[in-house]
Hints:
Layout: H1 5-13, H2 15-34, H3 37-61, H4 66-96, H5 100-130
Amino acid sequence: MPISDEEFASIQKGLSLNSIVTGFIVLIILWAALRSLRLVLAVVITLAIGLIVTAAWIVCRRSMNPISLAFAILFIGLSADFAVQFSLRYRAQQYLSSDLHEALLEAAERVGVPLTLAAAAAAVAFCRSCRRHIPVWRNWEKLPDAG
Length: 147
């Protein structure tokens, strides 16, 4: 269901200000959690690339709707959460091992599977809510609500 002109106009009304304020708040949260400019920049760059790719996919499919906008919010929240979890584990491992490569590998081993499982669960939940709007996923009606 495409977004109507009235809905889109009401969303656009405060989009710039809300985006700036939200971006600033996300930066504050990232700084409070990570306390490292390099880690915050890595998270922000990764998040920006992910949003650009997602926006390009939405534009190519011409499927801007309320779910698309909700996905952007979900994407920012989950990406920041997963990045903080991985970065904190990396910093903990870096204190135990002075080798950067070893700390990254150990962090990936310890949080890789749990974060992948959490991402898969979030993807299934999101796809479950989108099944009415995307024809390929309409057959997911039999998928139980286990979230």
